[in-house]
Each structure stands twice: as structure tokens, then as C-alpha cells.
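Reference record
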Amino acid sequence: MLCVTLAGTLVWATAAKKKKQAPVQRVTAAQQAAAREEIARRMAAAGPAFENPEALGLFYKSLAAGPVHILQFGDSHTASDDWVNAMRTLLQTKFGDGGPGFVQAGRPFKGYRRFDAKASASPGWHTEGTMALRGDPDQGLSGISISAATPNQTIGLTASGEALSIFFLAQPGGGRLELTVDGQSMDVFTTDGTPGPGVSTYALLPGSHDLSLRTLDRAPVRLYGWTLDNKAGVTFETLGINGAQAHLMLGWNEAIWAAEVAARSPSLVILAYGTNEANSHLWTLEDYRADMTALIARVRRAAPDAAILMIGPPDCGKLHPLLHLSEVVAAQHEISREQGVAFFDLRRHQGGAGAVKLWVTAGYGQADYIHLTGEGYRLVGETIVNALLANALLERQNEQARKNN
């Protein structure tokens, strides 16, 4: 996203090829300021933050006890890490930095990033699990894996933490990997074994580390990711796939996925889908209700001690809302009530139908009228965290009142 000033006018535009320039929306500084003021007014008047806030009780209890692991699954709004990083930063500032938690292996797709970790990879890895490269169901926690079958393929990670785990697919004839920590070879382990989830764990000194993995054989290796944790604090783990719909998760190997979810022992699982469902001509209410019900049940099997929070899609569409946007949001309201999970209606908190135009004028929305700018995503993340913390305080006050009575 570019922002330039022309004669006192703010111009927002997305990068484009030379022959296909994106339309430029010209917004004066006064218009931008007015739009931001109106957004703030609408967000303050949006009413209660969550439906079924009592469903967050397990999460609030974990905040008091720690450590806290949060997993957010979603589409491109999640995958960019802007929104999640805003939430991560606020929670870690208040409750301590638990490390990056789960980070996907290498650089599995173009534009992959984590603000709290730096990843790298040699060119010999093959990605599966994205919408363009679906692959088989054995894709691990994030739904994405990288594979190689030749020696000297490497991935790297620079991040802070004192407990390291490496998640991979165990498979007959699987190759060996060398782990290097801060330039020193630490271990060689094999991925050969009975088909299923594999993990290698290590204790590190506290602080930042440069980690690398190198394949040693002409043999198959499939990696899912690695975790770096501290003994206390919050991790907030980004598990988004560009273009994804929620039912994608139902296609993942449940045994592998559930084992890796259980290894993270999450206090909160966030399901942040809806934009791509709303834009699909194949969407039906009947199928969506069945898929979301099955997905919530799958999360509960894997993480019975975790609270579940559904977050609805943002307002989207330049001339008209996305095809099924209102239907998807209405369905999410109903499903959250029926299934006893918390729900945050992002579209309503933005200002309701048509609010996306105001967000673009304010510099919070991109020119596609679907995605937000970094600043817009930060506003969303901060709004949700502030609502979570305010609700946690209210729950503590209510609990104290019950004890006093």
C-alpha cells in the first residue's frame, strides 16, 4: 500500500503492473480525518463486543495462570499477520512474551511472514496445502507443509525462545535432518518411521537464536513447522491460508492435526473465516452450517480445554457487498449460539453494511475493498484485544460478587 501527498491530498493506491495501474482514490486530509472520526464513533456505539462471552471463560482462567497459547486459523486477513500481530503485541505486553510459538517451516508461500520471527528457505522445497497446491491431507497444524527429497536443502528461523520443537511427518524411508543452533550443530534426527505426526524437542538457553535445518539424504522429508516458547507469557500463532474457507480444515488429516494442536495445548482457538465463503457462488446455508458444526466439534476433540472464538468477516465490496456476506454473518450468529462459542461480529464493529467505503477513505482499507491496510488491521486487532480484556475484568468482578453473596 502506497501513500503519497499531492497538493495537500492523500492518495491511496495498491502496487500494480506498469500497464495495469490500479484506480487511485484521492482523499483530502480533511476527508480522511472525518472518516476516522466517524469510524471511531461507530465502533464505540457498536454495542456488546461478543455474543456468548461466557464461552471465553476457559481463556480468562488461563490468563490468570499462564502460559497461554492462542491459535488463529483463517484466510488472508489472518495470513498477513498484521491483525494477529497487533493482538499478539498487546497481550504479550500485558501478560508476558511467550515467544513466537508455532511458525510454519521455511517460506511456504509468497508473502509469508511473521512479525516476531524471520524465516528463510533454500529453493529446493515443495509446498503443499495452499489453495493453488492442495496436495494430500497430511499437512499438519497449519494445513501447509514443505517437502524435499535431496540433500543440503535448508530452512532457517531467527526468533526468541528457550523450548524448541520441530514438527514433521514421520514416514517409511524418511530422511535425516541436521539441526544447527547459533552456528553450532546440535543434533541429527530421522523422519523415518510409522506414518503419522513426528516431533523432536530441545531445550535452549533463553534469548534470540538462529536456527537451521538441513536435509542429509536423498530421501523424502516433510516439515510442518517449529515452535519456540518461553516458560511463561502468551504466544499468538498465525495459521492463515490465502483464499481459504473454513471447510478446508475438515479435509486435513485429523490424527496429525489433532496431535499438533494438543502439543500446543491452546487456551483459545480463533476461527476467522467468511470472506471467501461470502464471495463463493457455490455457498449454501445448509452446507455451511454442517461444515462449521463439524469444525467446532473437531476443535473441541483436539483441544477440550480451549475456548473457541469465531470472528466474522469484515465488510467487503466496492459497489455492492459480496454475494453472500450478510447470509454468512447471520449464519455465524446462529451457529455461535447453537454451539456455545463466542462470536465477534467484525462487520458490525466496523460500522455495518457499506462501512468498507468509509474505511478506504480513512486509509484503513485497501483499494480492493476487501483487505485492510496495516493500520486498519492493527485497529481491528487492538479493538478485539481491548474487548477481551474488558470482558475479562467484568467476569472477574462478577465472580467476586458471586463469592461475596
